[in-house]
């Protein structure tokens, strides 16, 4: 690396133009609103604070060393709050070349004794020879250099091919705490200051930053230029954005601020994004009654981007698939693009203009942005049903995520790891759902007016949630508005933001009185009896059927243990939580459930569509928690054959898929429940298919649902779906056009049914060569549909080619892991890949830790069979795993224990309902979950078994079944007991060598030099039998013993050393699964 070259260019960039004047009056200083936690805190001390930055960055590729480097200089103008000899900044993974401190008024230089960079603490300490004095301003100038990163954080390199030539761009991703990886700074969100940015580039390159460029200068160094940009408004460090490379600008829409930048191959695919964006910005301006301060907006389609998009001030970065569309893109991807653009647009108000003061309050950015992602887009796209989609895509997802309580919306974070982990469903989806609940409680007017005042008052400021609620309280005081029943506003809302989880309200009827009680909801046994909420109650009955009035008619309060409601009418059923606006579940007595099921079967449209979705989701999750017999949700689901609206099916898909996944462990019952669910999936797929294909509907929700339900029905091997998908796949292979909205199902089914290497390779070739982001997305998911575990294993091995022009980018690997987890073969291949390559992933892949922990977490949520569990158990218990990874594995493993507990508790109820034979009993206890396990008994769990047949149905027997053939010839014997176990028999695999110009795949090679034998799937389905005939009996899967796991694999994993988080020196013995792969 030519260190002197980079530093020389940086010096020239800095000398080319002086720092433009930035106003730094005492009144304009940003005040840190969150105090440091003391000497041991990861927070910066409050003795100094920044007033403004002058930032110079120069990326450079050195051909001699084949290294991508960058150099930089930052001048930080600081104000001293308390006397100190030190300046403490955030910095990580860089070399500090020089440090200077100058007092601004006198221009006296202070001697710098030393400086020290602690990469682990991410702190740069600068020690001055004398104290920095209170009330004075100083300039701290630091020259530094580093490597352009490859993990898509900080200042990193992204590569792409254009006309067969590999090119690169240097681009930034600083959220949440990655600015410190690019330049020393006060990397906390409360420090909002102006930035004056200059970027160095070579003659054939271009640059972009947060503001318009005002000057370009040739440097006194051959082929180098400096671009200087206007000063930003006050922004936090994580919103600084920059790009240096060879991107091209698209043609701008007249009257629009938007420019889209990508490379030549995709310039014609940006029209959709540029056409939609101006209307989305206008919707936010109209709602907030305020304009943002943007002078320009650039959209970057970044080839390598970890996430969906980033809302940098004036320069939003996107994953390519969300802004690049040809004319033949699937409708759902277009919808996701518009909504992502709206989300980042909303961030201009929530996050950019008004910023959370610390990451505890991240939901003030993310929750509002998620909320307006739907509700502001609805103003532009009223026919997309986004108000209803919000409920089944955000509200429902948040309830599922938080039904094992995680953390409050207003969280408590300290370390960088804490901050990165807090970017989850709670601070986005759940926070948005709580905002929706607030809007319905107080009305849109009383939600909107104080919100706009909040934006005006704290413009360019940093806030806590206390600031937000204080504005609401003061506005309500002036308007003489109050919540009913003397409910204190702040107490009400903080009962939802300041504690984890949510409640379940239980409604029972005794003659003419409804009794309401509530408690914290959890799908697993919990001793939490302390959480309490202010719950606004809305309800209607079969006589009134008023689903429109969403403001609470009464309240359940923290100090109220029970509430009585009189009802003298002759109503037969009642529904609480109208349109699912409240963030809570509702349980009823069995008679009310029976009446609701009857109503759904007789005339489901008499119940609001969102409440139909709510009844499905609540009933299945109440049964999962042991608060309701499983016969109730299963009986309720039979009405779905009369449900033609797509919205309730979104809830049904999630709930039924969980049951099918868990029942894979049942030798007898799996085919029965899968057959029942398959019939339902086929029904809704046929319904939407007829509307789209036969009746040529242009309804947006129907078309996007057609895509979703075709994938669901085909994944369950529905005959109608499979036949249609194969017809479309054959057309596609013959270069005939098929609808992009059916392409996901067609490509996946084509690979699955053909189950040969040539077909898989053909789809891979399309994946690597297509210019359509939509088609590439379909092909990527389809490649995980193969039934050949060796092919799937090789698909995963492409991970290691990411830096050599391989077909898989790091950003896509997690999506591939998700797709793999949907089939038994994918689970097997993924597990073997993780076990055999964990050391290699950690050593070679920049995002190795993230990939390893993500794969394990996904697998832990999906495994069901003993051999699958045994592998993850051994991996978790491997000695000397890096502590961070081991802790993540332990946390994920809880999901395995919980899923086993569910199976042991409920699988017999599921089998009883479907009419499946009882699973064979074994001579040892089914499964010991853990030594400290609490049984899911209680009165709730007892109800699930003892009253399981209390709600009857005449349509509980599945009409068709599948037979899964297994080769279970032997039994395993222990010293005390004998239990049935499955031995995976060898399969004969035809070896087909595939080669193309760019990629080849062979079933004769493995990923490591050590010989590794991979097991084949033990759940291969045989031909479907007579649908009315029960499956032939098969040997039951062996029960799993946590104290006697097998087989072994890892013998030593020394702790990792070194600066890079992915460096590790693990030594593994590769697992050899008991299977012989015959190669013909």
Automatic annotation (TrEMBL):
Keywords: Aminopeptidase, Glycoprotein, GPI-anchor, Hydrolase, Lipoprotein, Membrane, Metal-binding, Metalloprotease, Protease, Signal, Signal-anchor, Transmembrane, Transmembrane helix, Zinc. InterPro entries: Aminopeptidase_N-like_N (IPR045357), Aminopeptidase_N-like_N_sf (IPR042097), ERAP1-like_C_dom (IPR024571), M1_APN-typ (IPR034016), Peptidase_M1 (IPR001930), Peptidase_M1_aminopeptidases (IPR050344), Peptidase_M1_dom (IPR014782), Peptidase_M4/M1_CTD_sf (IPR027268). Its cofactor is Zn(2+). It is a lipid-anchor; GPI-anchor; Single-pass type II membrane protein. Coiled coil: none annotated. Residues 272-474 form the Peptidase M1 membrane alanine aminopeptidase domain. Residues 915-1044 are annotated as: Disordered. Residues 1-18 form the signal peptide. Residues 50-239 form the Aminopeptidase N-like N-terminal domain. Gene3D superfamilies: 1.25.50.20, 2.60.40.1910, Neutral Protease Domain 2, tricorn interacting facor f3 domain. Zn(2+) binds at residues 347, 366. Binds 1 zinc ion per subunit. This is Aminopeptidase N 1. It comes from Aphis glycines (Soybean aphid).
């Amino acid at each position: 690396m030519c260190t002197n070259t980079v530093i020389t260019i940086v010096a020239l960039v800095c000398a080319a133009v002086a720092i433009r004047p930035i106003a730094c009056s005492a009144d304009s200083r940003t005040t840190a609103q969150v105090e440091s936690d003391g000497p041991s805190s990861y927070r910066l001390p409050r003795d100094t604070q920044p007033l403004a930055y002058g930032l110079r960055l120069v990326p450079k590729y050195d051909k001699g060393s084949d290294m991508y480097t960058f150099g930089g200089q930052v001048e930080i103008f600081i104000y001293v709050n308390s006397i100190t000899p030190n300046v403490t900044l955030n910095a990580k993974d860089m070399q500090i070349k020089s440090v200077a401190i100058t007092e601004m008024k006198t221009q006296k230089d202070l001697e710098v004794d030393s400086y020290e960079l602690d990469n682990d603490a991410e702190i740069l300490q600068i020690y001055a020879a004398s104290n920095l004095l209170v009330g004075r301003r100083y300039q701290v100038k630091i020259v530094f250099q580093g490597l352009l990163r490859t993990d898509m954080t900080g200042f990193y390199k992204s590569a792409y091919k254009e006309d067969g030539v590999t090119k690169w761009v240097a681009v930034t991703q600083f959220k949440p705490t990655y600015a410190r990886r690019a330049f020393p700074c006060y990397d906390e969100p409360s420090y909002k200051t102006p930035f004056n940015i200059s970027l160095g580039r070579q003659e054939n390159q271009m640059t972009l930053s947060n503001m318009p460029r005002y000057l370009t200068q040739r440097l006194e160094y051959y082929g180098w230029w400096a671009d200087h940009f206007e000063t930003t408004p006050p922004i936090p460090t994580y919103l600084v954005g920059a790009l240096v490379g060879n991107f091209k600008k698209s043609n701008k829409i007249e009257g629009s601020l938007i420019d889209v930048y990508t490379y030549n191959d995709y310039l014609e695919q940006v029209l959709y994004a540029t056409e939609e964006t101006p209307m989305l910005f206008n919707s936010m301006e109209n709602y907030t009654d305020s304009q943002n301060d943007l002078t320009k907006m650039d959209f970057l389609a970044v080839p390598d981007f970890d996430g969906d998009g980033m809302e940098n001030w004036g320069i939003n970065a996107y994953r390519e698939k969300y802004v690049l569309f040809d004319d033949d893109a699937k409708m759902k991807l277009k919808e996701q693009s518009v909504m992502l653009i709206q989300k980042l647009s909303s961030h201009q108000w929530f996050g950019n203009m008004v910023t959370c003061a610390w990451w505890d309050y991240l939901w003030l950015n993310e929750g509002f942005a998620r909320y307006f992602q739907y509700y502001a887009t609805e103003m532009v796209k009223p026919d997309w049903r986004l108000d209803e989609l919000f409920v089944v895509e955000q509200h429902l997802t948040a309830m599922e995520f938080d039904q094992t309580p995680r953390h409050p919306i207003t969280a408590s974070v300290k370390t960088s790891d804490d901050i990165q982990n807090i970017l989850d469903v709670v601070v986005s989806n759940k926070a948005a759902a709580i905002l929706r609940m607030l809007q319905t409680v107080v009305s849109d007017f009383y939600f909107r007016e104080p919100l706009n005042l909040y934006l005006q008052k704290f413009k360019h400021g940093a806030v806590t949630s206390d600031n937000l609620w204080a504005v609401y309280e003061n506005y309500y005081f002036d308007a003489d508005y109050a919540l009913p029943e003397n409910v204190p506003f702040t107490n009400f809302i903080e009962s939802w933001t300041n504690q984890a989880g949510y409640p379940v309200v239980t409604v029972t009827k005794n003659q003419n009185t409804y009794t309401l009680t509530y408690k914290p909801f959890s799908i697993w046994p919990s001793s939490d009896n302390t959480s309490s909420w202010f719950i606004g109650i809305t309800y209607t009955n079969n006589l009134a059927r008023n689903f429109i009035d969403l403001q609470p008619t009464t309240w359940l309060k923290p100090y109220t243990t029970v509430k009585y409601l009189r009802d003298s009418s002759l109503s037969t059923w009642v529904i609480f939580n109208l349109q699912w606006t409240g963030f809570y579940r509702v349980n009823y007595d069995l008679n009310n459930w029976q009446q609701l099921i009857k109503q759904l079967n007789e005339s489901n449209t008499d119940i609001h569509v969102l409440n139909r979705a709510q009844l499905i989701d609540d009933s299945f999750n109440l049964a999962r928690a042991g608060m309701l017999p499983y016969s109730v949700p299963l009986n309720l689901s039979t009405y779905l054959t009369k449900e033609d609206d797509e919205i309730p099916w979104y809830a049904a898909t999630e709930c039924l898929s969980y049951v099918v996944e868990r029942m894979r462990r049942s030798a007898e019952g799996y085919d029965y429940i899968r057959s029942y669910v398959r019939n339902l999936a086929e029904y809704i797929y046929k319904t939407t298919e007829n509307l789209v294909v036969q009746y040529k509907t242009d309804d947006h929700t129907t078309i996007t649902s057609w895509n979703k339900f075709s994938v669901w029905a085909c994944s369950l091997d529905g005959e109608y779906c499979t036949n249609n998908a194969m017809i479309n796949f054959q057309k596609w292979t013959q270069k005939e056009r098929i609808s992009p909205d059916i392409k996901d199902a067609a490509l996946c089914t084509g690979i699955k049914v053909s189950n040969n290497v040539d077909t898989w390779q053909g789809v891979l070739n399309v994946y690597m060569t297509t210019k359509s982001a939509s088609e590439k997305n379909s092909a990527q998911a389809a490649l995980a549909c193969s039934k050949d575990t060796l092919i799937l294993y090789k698909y995963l091995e492409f991970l290691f080619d990411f830096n050599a022009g391989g077909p898989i980018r790091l950003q896509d690997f997690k999506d591939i892991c998700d797709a793999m987890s949907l089939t038994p073969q994918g689970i097997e291949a993924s597990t073997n890949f993780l076990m055999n390559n964990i050391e290699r992933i950690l050593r070679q892949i920049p995002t190795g830790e993230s990939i390893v922990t993500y794969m394990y977490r996904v697998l832990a949520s999906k495994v069901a069979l003993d051999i699958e569990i045994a592998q993850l158990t051994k991996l978790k218990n491997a000695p000397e795993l890096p502590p961070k990874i081991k802790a993540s594995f332990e946390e994920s493993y809880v999901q395995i224990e919980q899923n086993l507990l569910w199976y042991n508790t409920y699988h017999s109820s599921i089998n009883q309902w479907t009419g499946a034979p009882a699973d064979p009993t074994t001579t040892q206890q089914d499964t010991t979950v853990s030594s400290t396990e609490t049984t899911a008994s209680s009165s709730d769990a007892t109800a699930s078994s003892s009253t399981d047949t209390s709600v009857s149905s005449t349509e509980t027997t599945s009409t068709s079944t599948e037979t899964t053939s297994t080769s279970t010839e032997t039994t395993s014997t222990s010293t005390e007991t004998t239990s049935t176990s499955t031995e995976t028999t060898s399969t004969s695999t035809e070896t087909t060598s595939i080669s193309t110009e760019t990629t080849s795949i062979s079933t004769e090679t493995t990923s490591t030099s050590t010989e590794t034998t991979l097991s084949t799937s033990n759940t291969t389905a045989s031909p479907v039998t007579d649908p009315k005939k029960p499956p032939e009996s098969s040997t039951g899967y062996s029960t799993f013993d946590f104290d006697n796991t097998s087989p072994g694999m890892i013998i030593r994993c020394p702790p990792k050393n070194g600066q890079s988080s992915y460096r590790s020196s693990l030594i593994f013995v590769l697992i050899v699964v008991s299977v012989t792969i015959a190669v013909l």
